[in-house]
Design brief:
single chain; binds fe (ii) ion; 39% strand; Jelly Rolls; three-stranded antiparallel sheet
Length: 190
């Protein structure tokens, strides 16, 4: 007696799940943007995209002196970066100077601190929180924040960032000071 298998049942007939997005599919989608996508839209993409170790491998590299930004794609509307952080490495306190952005923690533990700025008091601490692997967090305009890999994490950190429009010159701040400086992120090791 033989058993027959209806091969038709093995062929998926359902429409593609809109919630599943591959890393290369997201890059294609970003490259196709002709105007900056909304914060909510970027958040949804980064929350739903599946990212494997192989996807990020070409963009993984660490420096001892500072975190290292690796650009995945960029056009006039949007850019994607993968940032690699050793324990203790962190950004300056900054805003995005008119861009909005979303971060997804690919691997490791990210610490995010947010601040507020008042003309009279200068920069004030607002909140701080731990973002473990899988966290997706967005920053609108004019959010001021600092991201980093806490020294005590004991592990490297890899994060995926999408900014719209792409980041140019950023403003940086100091706690308790009204002084605002300009900062241009550097993509290349020096
Ligand atoms: Fe930022």
């Amino acid at each position: 007696m033989s058993t027959s298998i209806n091969t038709e049942t093995l062929i998926p007939t359902a429409p593609p799940d809109s919630s599943s997005l591959t890393f290369s599919g997201l890059v294609e989608r970003l490259n196709a943007q002709t105007s900056p996508p909304a914060l909510e839209e970027i958040s949804s993409w980064l929350a739903n995209v599946e990212i494997s170790p192989l996807d990020v491998e070409p963009f993984v590299g660490f420096k001892e002196g500072n975190y290292w930004r690796h650009r995945v794609c960029r056009n006039e509307a949007v850019e994607m970066l993968i940032i690699c952080w050793r324990p203790g490495q962190k950004t300056p306190i900054h805003d995005h100077n008119g861009s909005h952005g979303v971060v997804r923690v690919h691997k490791g533990l990210m610490w995010e601190t947010t601040f507020c700025y008042e003309e009279e008091r200068g920069l004030c601490y607002n909140t701080g929180r731990e973002c473990p692997t899988g966290t997706v967090t967005g920053a609108g305009v004019p959010d001021i924040h600092q991201l980093g890999n806490p020294e005590v994490s004991g592990q490297d950190l890899i994060t995926v960032h999408v900014y719209a429009p792409p980041l140019g010159v950023l403003k940086t701040y100091k706690v308790g000071s009204a002084q605002v400086d300009l900062y241009t992120p550097n993509d290349f090791p020096t």
